[in-house]
Amino acid sequence: MALTSATQRLVAQFEYTDENVNIGVKEFLRQIDEGLHKSGTSMSQIPTYVTAVPNGTEKGLYLAVDLGGTNLRVCSVRLNGDNTFSLTYNKSPIPKLLMVAKSSQELFKFIAEHIAVFIKEHHYDHYEHHIRRRETMSSPEGFRDEHIFRLGFTFSFPVQQVGINKGFLIRWTKGFDIPDAIGKDVCALLQEEIDRLHLPVKVAALVNDTVGTLMARSYTSPGKTGALLGAIFGTGTNGAYIEKLSNIKKDMEGEYDTSTGEMVINTEWGSFDNQLNVLPTTTYDIKLDQESVNPGIQMFEKRVSGMFLGEILRIVLVSLLQDESIPLFHDDNSSHNDWKSTTSIAAQSGMFKKWGLDSAIMSVAALDNTPDLGTLRLELDSQLDVYSPSLEDAHAFKAIAAAIARRAARLSAVAVGAIVLQSGKLTDPAFAGEPIDVGVDGSLVEHYPHFRTMMYEALKAIDGIGEAGAERIRIGIAKDGSGVGAALIALVAASMEKKRPTTIEWLAQMRSEASLKTLKEVDSAVEQEAEETAA
Ligand code: ADP
Ligand code: MG
């Protein structure tokens, strides 16, 4: 009984009502606008200089690297030009030690080594060809331009982008902390390590994962208009959307194409309402923030994303475990337990360690609707070293986890709903009846059961959206979005590079020139060109 009433009390603390949602949306709209007017605001609203989205006809083979918060993905993407693509990828967990390495070189070396492994494994002909060429050339990077893989680098941390393949790290998030990287160009750091391994790869574009998701959704969704928003709900959370140039009032240094009248803005909404004007805040949220590497920052993200939901749950459960009047994960004798043995929790349980409870178990809890919650109870045993959890324990765990996840989904709807309203598309007669496309990516939204359904419930409750508006919002998983998006932006970058004549065109031209003395000179000139291109 004590556990049941404690559970109900906790569930109530995580309730986020329709009224809260509407208050949240109003404040979100205010902070969007503030970020468009000046810098130094809680939501950074970073201009990306990307002024158009793809339409599905783009073609080519590109490499992409995605440094998320949890995993490193290396992939190659073939864009077929008909809204479809094929993708090959390798995925590896980022070692925790590298996230707080002494020098950023360690992290970028790790990435370059994974690129090398990937090319060897999946594009061996290409790789071998380069080794052969390299040995015949005077310069160690003597690749022909057409043999160089263009790489889109998805780097999901706040960056001040100053060019298509140049951007300075503003701050780390999601538990990363490598001070010497702050203020440095992350593309140059990666290129340096790639060159050290003599790989035929050029970092052609720097891509935020949200922008990549937006691009990917636009590429794959057939229709008149591209997607409005790309959003991530994985380790962290963030969104990038299409804003009217006329609404961007702060100074923009770089050059950009004004013909579309629009630009993609990277909101950095993980830091929405750092000042806590409207965000729901329990004692558990406060504790999590105080014990984080960046207290006071990324306050929205700390209530929404995969990295933090498990930790909130863990902090709540520890508080229950510390309360002796509440029998969580312990019963005095087996007569209380339908599994007929007494519950205990091991001292080494992740429950007692920071970040020791992975949000993935919350999905298991939500999916298990059997009368004895058998799957969840086995998972509590195998993942958290809770020996023979009782049915009551499992019920408490399930209910509290669900409340935390539901609050997260409804907060996510605040961000999505505010951006839909900001776009004006729901009331613009030019878009009447048109769907409003939103691409989402990240393990949380992909795997947590009914995450999107819970978002839709909240979207319907937003003034100015309602049932009819919510029906027009099409939230779809942009599967492999960051890889495809990075490839698309690498394509744009490649087309922007100064157009040179191909070697064959150039060779023909040189041969025809009477001033040219010997073929030997031509060959050395070809080598020279290749060296310049690689440089
Ligand atoms: P990244 O952010 O590195 O791109 P992901 O999108 O895979 O990676 O997100 C990883 C985050 O998602 C981790 O914080 C993890 O705890 C969480 N996560 C993974 N699987 C699940 C799941 N089934 N349910 C809820 N959260 C999950
Ligand atoms: Mg990701």
Automatic annotation (TrEMBL):
Q: Which gene encodes it?
A: GLK1
KW S-adenosyl-L-methionine (keyword) present: no
Domain (Hexokinase C-terminal): residue spans on this chain: 229-492
EC no. given is 2.7.1.-
Pathway in which this enzyme or protein is active: Carbohydrate degradation; glycolysis; D-glyceraldehyde 3-phosphate and glycerone phosphate from D-glucose: step 1/4
The UniProt entry, under SUPFAM superfamilies, shows:
Actin-like ATPase domain
Q: Which domain of life is it from?
A: Eukaryota
Query: What protein is this chain from?
Result: Phosphotransferase
The Swiss-Prot or TrEMBL record annotates one GO molecular function as:
hexokinase activity
Top EC class, one word? transferase
Residues forming the Hexokinase N-terminal domain are 7-219
Query: Which Pfam families does the entry link to?
Result: Hexokinase_1 (PF00349), Hexokinase_2 (PF03727)
Signal as UniProt keyword: no
Q: Which family does this protein fall into?
A: Belongs to the hexokinase family.
